[in-house]
Amino acid sequence: MENLQLGDMVLTGKADYEPVYAFGHQEKDVLASFVQIHKKDKQPLEVTPEHLVFLDGHANPVRADSIKAGDMLVGQDGTTNNVVTKVKTITKKGLYDPLTRSGTIAVDGVIASTYISLQDKEASAEYVDFQGGMNSGISHHDFVHMVLSPFRMLCSGVSSNMCTPTANDGMPLYVSKGLDFAKWADKQNLVVQGLLFLLVATICMACFAVEASFGPNLAPLAMLVAAVIWYKQNGIWKEKQV
């Protein structure tokens, strides 16, 4: 992971290669806690406790610290014969999170999400929960993937220099501020959480729709052209009316 650079092609859960468009986290000297997931006769998978990993029997990836012996990890070839033999917690130096356009990556023979859970272990390991344990109906993976749509378009279609991790915390500003906002929102009451969820989802779903139609490289240009056309059809017309 420490040798990966922006633009490197990595194997993903789609069984093809995608470029690393940014790093959600990149700090080589930081000490961090990892969940070490052992598989029979294979190199163990080492990820942070809140990182999301695909398991057999789950429609969405779950927190790494919710995985236990006997679970089956989804392999990079789509198989589910990677039986977990034991799970340990270790401390190692170096924290890396390469981001791909699909939000998945193949690591040590299994498929992992490139995202983390937005809530603590006590909350749902798979879905975003509101206060009181109310299920939002959207997984952590899908929600983060949607919220990162503007970030993907910025990094891929504008400039990757705008998405580099800062020296302060090893995360791009969009990611660090987004996590701060998610932690703050998680402490609010149900009504506030619902309103914030709808607001964020509406904005990011619109961006995601544009990204899905034009791709992250061309989506910013498409949005700029649409804005210019809208202004010409509405702004100038309103000026004439005045």
TrEMBL record:
The alphabetized UniProt keywords are: Membrane, Transmembrane, Transmembrane helix
| Annotated transmembrane regions | 190-208, 214-231
Pfam families, sorted: Hint
Entry keyword annotation includes Transmembrane: yes
Record bears the keyword Cell cycle? no
Which domain of life, per UniProt? Eukaryota
Which stretches make up the Hedgehog protein Hint domain?
Answer: 1-121
| InterPro entries recorded | Hedgehog_Hint, Hedgehog_Signaling, Hint_dom_sf
Share an example GO biological-process annotation for this protein.
protein autoprocessing
The record's listing under Gene3D superfamilies reads: Hedgehog/Intein (Hint) domain
Q: Where is the signal peptide?
A: none
Show the PANTHER family listed in the entry.
Answer: HEDGEHOG, PROTEIN HEDGEHOG
Query: What name goes with this protein?
Result: Protein hedgehog
The scientific name of the source species is Seminavis robusta
- Lineage, top ranks: Eukaryota, Sar, Stramenopiles, Ochrophyta, Bacillariophyta
